[in-house]
Amino acid sequence: MSHRRDDRSTPSRLPVSLLAGRVILLTCCLFSVAAYALPKHETRAVHKQIEGLEMEWRQAQVDNDIAVIANLLADDYVGITANGTVETKAQTIAQRRAGTIRITSLDLDDLKVRLYGDTAVVTSKAELQGVNGQSDISGTYRYTRVYNRRLGQWKIVSFEASRIHDVDARPGKHNP
After folding, report:
1. Are β-strands 135-136 and 153-164 bridged in parallel, bridged antiparallel, or unpaired?
2. What is this structure's pTM?
3. Using one digit for the tens of pLDDT, what is the confidence trace for 11-31?
4. Distance between CA atoms of 68 and 13, rounded to whole angstroms?
């Protein structure tokens, strides 16, 4: 009794299985692209939703509305302030509760939203009036805020701000 494999059947099976593998691979690729590609009207709707959350955040800052701030921040939120301080959600809320940071005016300009699946990256320019303890923090800032959609809700997961300094006050700038 011979267990010899019939070599004549192998060539006909190989192309079919290769073809089937390619079809499966192509189908998977198409579905994965479709999962991240939103129709234009849905993309516009998400942009508007994120812009609305930015306005909600702005108002919560001015009103010192801790409940709204806590609701918008993800539990694993990490923020980096303009002076380089790293803050967690708990630290951010504690500062607001203590009244350490008080923002009296906050105007946003040049707001841009970019979407990457369930992540939205917002960049903007902010003109603010306020104090952090005894220090005046009034000025113009550029910031990046990152939202992530979790269980259908957008939460702020990251933030970083940089102060825009007056061009004439930059080191090395000489006035005639």
Report:
1. unpaired
2. 0.72
3. 445 455 555 545 454 444 444
4. 62
